[in-house]
Each structure stands twice: as C-alpha cells, then as structure tokens.
Amino acid sequence: MSEKLQTLIIEDEELARNLLRSYLKDHPDIEVIGECENGFDGVKAINDKKPDLVFLDIQMPKITGFEMIELLDFKPQIIFTTAYDQYALKAFELNAVDYLLKPFSKDRMYSAIEKVQHRIQSGEDSAEKLEELTNLRSGEEFIDRVVVKDRHKIHIITVDKIRYIESLDDYVMIYTQDGRHMKQKTMKYFETNLDPKNFIRIHRSYIVQVDNIAEIQQYEKESYIVILKDTAKTKLKVSKTGYKKIKEVLHF
Amino acid sequence: MKHPLTNNYRLLGFYALFWAVIAVINIILQVIWYDVTLTESLLDTGTTYILYPLLGSSIWYSIRYNSLEETGIGRLVLFHLVAASILCGIWVTISYAIFQPFITEENHFLKDGFPSKIFAGYLMYAIYLVFFYAVNYYQSLKEKIKKEGEYKALIREAELQALKSQINPHFLFNSLNSISSLTVSNPEKAQEMVINLSTFMRYSLMHNEKEMVSFSRELENIKLYLSIEKVRFGKKLNAEFEIDAHCLESEIPNMILQPLFENAIKYGVYETTEQVTIKTTCVCEGNSLKIIILNDYDANSIKRKGEGIGLRNIRKRMEIIYNQPDLIKITDHKTSFEVQLIIPQKQAVS
Fold this sequence. Notes:
The structure holds 2 protein chains of 2 kinds.
Chain A: E1 5-10, H1 14-25, E2 30-36, H2 39-49, E3 53-57, H3 65-70, E4 77-82, H4 86-95, E5 98-101, H5 106-121, H6 127-136, E6 145-150, E7 153-158, E8 162-168, E9 171-176, E10 180-183, H7 187-193, E11 199-203, E12 206-209, E13 213-220, E14 223-228, E15 235-238, H8 240-250
Chain B: H1 4-7, H2 9-32, H3 38-56, H4 59-64, H5 73-99, H6 109-112, H7 114-166, H8 169-185, H9 187-205, E1 212-214, H10 215-233, E2 237-243, E3 251-253, H11 258-269, E4 276-285, E5 288-296, H12 309-322, E6 328-332, E7 336-344
Parallel strand pairs in B: 2-4
Antiparallel strand pairs in B: 1-3, 4-5, 5-7, 6-7
C-alpha cells in the first residue's frame, strides 16, 4: 500500500481522542487528517474531506454515530468505537462491521485497521453494509427523533413534531410544523420504528401522526380521506386497511 | 381506611344476614311465647334489629378517629359515652315517632319497652365498639403485613437496581477508557482516577449494609462521582453546590442521590456540546432536608419521555421508607430540568 489511509477521528471525549491519536501516530499507514468533537462536525468533515477511514464513536451529543451515517453523502470505511451498547453490538455482529470496545489495546486497533486495508484492496464497498446497519439499529424501542439534512444544515426532528410522512419512491418527505424534509429511508422503516399508538400508516403513501387528524370524511362508498389540523387543511387518502387501523387506534 | 361494610360486600352480607336471623327469631318468640301482636312485634323488631344496625354502622367512624393507642383512656370513655348517648337519643326518638300511632290504652307493649330499649341501645353500642375495634385491628394488621412484604421486595429490587445503576457499564467502561488514555499522557492523574473510581465503587457496594447514611457522606460520594465524570467531560460538566452547613448531619437514604446525578449527566451533559451546569441546593426546613438538583439540557435534541426507571425507583423507595407520597417533585422548565427531594428527618435540624 503506497498511499497512507486518510483518517478522521470522530469522538466527543477529549481523553478518548487523545488515546486514538496516540495509537494512530505510530501506525505507518495512517495519516490523521482531522478530529471532530460531535456528530454535526463529523458529517460535514466526512462529506468535505472524503476520508478513507473514520473512527466513529456511537454515543455522542446532538446526533449519534448511527444517525450520522444516515446523513452521509459519502460513505468511507468506518471503525466504530463504543463503551457499551447492546443494540449496537448486535447490529455490528449481524453486519460484520468493525468495532472497538473501549478501552481497547493498540494491537486490537491495528488488527481492525488491517481488516479495513484488506477490504479496500479487494475493492469492497462499505455503503450498502452501513445502510443496513442504520435500518437494524433501533432494537426494541421506538425512535424518538429523526435527523435530516437540508443542503448544509442538520435538523433534529423529535417525533412529536412530525405531522405526517409521505412516500416518494426511494425517499420519504417528512412534514413538520415548520416545513418539510426529505430523507432517504423507506416507509416500512418508519412504520415499524414509530410508535403505532401515535403514528398510523393510513395509506401506502402516508403515515400520519394521530393527534394531527382533524376529521375523517367519507368521500365515496368505501373510501375515506383524513383532513389534518393545519391552516391548509391538508387532505390525505386513506386505504381500506388504513381506515381499519385508524378505527382501532381512535376507538370509534 | 374505608368503612368495612361498604368496602367488603361479603361482610355486609353476613352483617345483614346476622341481624335478619336475630330479627326472625325475635318475632317468632314474641308472637308465640309472649303473645305480642304481629304488628307490634314487627315494629319492635324493626327498630331494634334493622334501624339500630343501620344507625350503628356509623359507630365505625367513632372508633376510626379514636384509636386505642393514641387516645387517653379518660377521653376515650367520655367520647364513647357522649357518642352512645347521641346515637341512642336519635334511635329512641325515631323509634318513638314510629311507635306513636300504635300506642293506645290497651296496647302499651311498645310503650313499656322503652326503658329497656334505651338500656339495650347502650349495650349494643358497646358490642359494636368491640366488633369495630376488632375489625379495625384486623384490617390494620393485614395492611401492615402486606406493606411489610412489599417493602422487603422493593428493598431487594432497589438494591439490585441501585447496584446495577451504580456500576453502570457505560460509566465504568468509559471511565476505564479515560484511565487508559491518561496512562499515556498523565500517569499521575490516571492513578488518581483509579483511586477515585475504586472509592466510589466501594461506597456503592456497601450500599446493602446500611439503609440510612449521613447527608455529608452521601454528598461526598456524589462529589467523587462528579469528579470522575469531570475527567471525562472536562469543561462541559460544571457542578455547583450550595449546601447549608446545618444540613450535613441530616440522615438520608443511602445512594438515593447518585441516580439523579447520573440522569443529569445522561440527559444534560451527554446530549449537548455546550457547558452544562448541575446545580445542587440544599436547605433544612423544619423537620426535613430539601435537596434541589437543577441541570440544563438541550431541548432540541432530546424529548424527555416522562419518568425513567431511575426516577421511578427513587420515588418508590422514598414512599416505602417514609410512607408519604410526593416527596419527590420533578419539573421540566424546557431548558432545564429540576428534581426536588424532600427527606423527612426524625428531629428538627437547626
């Protein structure tokens, strides 16, 4: 390997960063090109600098390492670092991604780097694997927020702000009180990861927050629409199964 | 405690059946043996064995608020004498009003019975008294046994939970990672942190031995915990204490504060990139120690979903120890989170 791996460190704790840096300093094939203290900076740095390798901490303020991956335009090789996270470990094992459990030794880190080097040599792409990882992520609990990126800004949307979600082929459009945000995720993902007590898949193309429904109207025999509580009185189609689900949740 | 008759329909059934049987026997005896007319017998029986049991069920309240343990014997006797007189007065008056139309020159059975009726009224009051005191005693005993069982189960659970949360794996492994880093850059500090971590863990482990500790001891442990976290979070974590020195000798349940600080760090420090202040204020007010823990948090990135398991456990534990609700109050100020804890003291702390 002639060129050094351009490496980025994303880790919120200073001491943990120091340790990573000091281990990496002695590795002949690594060149650390930057360090980030939080997920926001991390997303920007990866998209701008397009590193070969990233050491990514999972638990970070603002957005987690997993949420970060959802926002990347460019997917580098990633070695995750975490102290303790059972969900994460399960996801790592399932997807055979590289991870380091804190505290880890220099040897353990170097062998992880070696694996990455092999993968790069064999031309393996990490994008797909990472994609699946983020889908697997949310274990038993329902998600309580969604992160999105518009042009250059990252928004954290807590789920109570979501009015409804519309499917757009490979993307979804998330409508909130303040506007709308596009995200590369499937409807299925939101259907399974949002609490069904609060969010109903009323149609192939729509998931609606229950509190946002103002009215349900019959507009033809056997077909219904919901009218939302907004000034524009947005109308959304309801499918037959969707109508059943609404009835179940709202008890009428 | 609710009235045993309205609260327990089976007991109410037995009560009604008991008096019904007595009433029927009384009527049969009066009519067959004493040649009393059926109307008179019905009236006499009705007032004695139906009206009195109805009125008498209120005697429960007179014993409910005059417990044998807390009221002096003189007061007790006087109270019940007055209560019995009032009850008998009401009973006799109503009975007389019912009897009046039926009392004539020839039919004086009902009228003749009055003195003995008044006597019977007092006697029945005494019987009721014994009965209700027995019921009350039995109910309190049952409740006490139930509570004790609950208490024991909860202590065990709390201990386990406390142990779990104290040696929170996140906290432990991250601290160990910090130590690992410090051994390279600052071995002395690494050593200091190992010692702090050991002291903290030792305190956590001795948790099972003692339920109550002095506030100063608990506070020391909290400061140790925060100093360990401070090594990890650096400037991001800012802890401020405003402790009334008089409070230090107060008694406090062991390890009750640590989960609160852990929460403050988890939701406050961990979720933001700015500095978070955890401010602890303690004052002694009369017979209690008041502790307020206030921490900033970033409302944009986290939506607090009510009470987590940590807070729930503390609430439960406080309820069991002090048998008083509302000793813990939680207020979400949108950009800060406040937990207020009231620790009752046996003696006033001055």
